[in-house]
Amino acid sequence: MTCRTCPRPAWHWLWWHPARSLRVHWTVPSCSPFCLNLWRERRMVDPNDQEVAAMLTAGDIAGQYIDAVGRTDMATWSEQDWRGFIEAVCGAYVDSLIEQQIAINSAVAKVQAVPG
Ligand SMILES: [Zn+2]
Fold this sequence. Notes:
flat, binds zinc ion, mainly alpha, 4 helices, single chain
């Protein structure tokens, strides 16, 4: 994997390493803080309330998934275990955002309804 900004290898922060926190994986592959900084607007630097809620939901699902696998040492996980974990976490995050959007749409629909 190369840096998104320049042709050097993307090693900065070992962003690709599975043992690093998920937050690191949300960054753009980069070779250095300098190159990463050019993508600042693409990162979730300041998560809003909805994103924080979605992360909490994803964190709960992550814990449940780890309990289900029964081994907390992720280095012992199979590729299938790891892929399932990522699917569960990403799915929970996206589902949470969608559920929040549906709730907001329902609230907005109440105030936009034309009086009959
Ligand atoms: Zn670079």
